[in-house]
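Hey, quick one: can you model this chain's 3D structure?
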Amino acid sequence: MPKSLVISIDAMGGDNAPHIVIDGIAHFLKTQRQTRNIRFLLHGDAGQLTPLIDSAGIPAGVCEIRHTATVIDMDAKASHAVRRGKGTSMWNAIAAVKVGEAQAGVSAGNTGALMGMSKLQLRMKTGVQRPAIAAIWPQKTDHCVVLDAGANIGCDSAQLTEFAVLGEAYFRAMFGAAKPTIGLLNNGSEEGKGNDVVRAAHERLSESELGLNYVGYVEGNDISMGDVNVIVTDGFSGNIALKTAEGTAKLIRHFLEEAFKESLLSKLAAFISMPVLKRLSSKIDPRTLNGGVFLGLNGLMIKSHGGTDALGFANAVKIAADLAESDFMDEIDRTLAALHNEDDNIGFIV
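Sure thing. Here's the predicted structure for all 350 residues.
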């Protein structure tokens, strides 16, 4: 039996924890365990977790419970949570990654607290000013990665350039593309558009000798309708763009459901079209892409949406496993080293 992959789980984090967490792990195991030797470290209340594991039918030995009775509230201020978070389920889940007991961690808990605790324990990679959250979103023929999706409200041009490097390595690890295309989100594709920070980042990426496949400015509609693989922006714009897209996808599903309920004829049409509707629903279902990765840290932490269900949490676990089994962290080190060597050579000032 090959050495097992270990995923550390904040079992109490999220709006519907812990039962959704355990159901998500069970769902993941049904589809993935035949090809993977995976174990889970579950951090949380053993009294709640043990019966949930038993009722979910998870095989013995797959989950190890690390008991803790303390939890970070979903509405806690990040600064307060970080100061008083030691010993909580979230803190302990990150700590297992830090000491090497687990190769990756997953939490659906408070985003600000998770970011703060991850930065404190795992530390940022050399040369990275700020970590970024990378989110996957569907496009017409494939997927794209958008970053930052909410970790940093404001960024300078050097940070946006770092995000391009981090996102490129992430896309290669997840989708196997040799030369992912990279675009910079802007309010227009013409030269001269955008604020000073965006224009400075565009100039730097255009002149870079890192070998990045930078294609220039992209607009908001390109996130879903374009063909650029990695879309770079600050966390304020990125979070709004993705939340808007997610809401639009849910609205479309709602409209379709309402339309097919209007009459007996429409119900019959829905029945006949069911295979097509299921494929459409899967393509625009945010749960199938749930799981934002904190890029730029010395360890893998994945943030699941706090309100997700078992399918969504299972997908976040799959992202954690896929990255842990890839050479993603080594690729990040290599590309960051090249970026900052270039900085030294050109004397770039941020």
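One thing worth noting: The longest helix spans residues 235-259.
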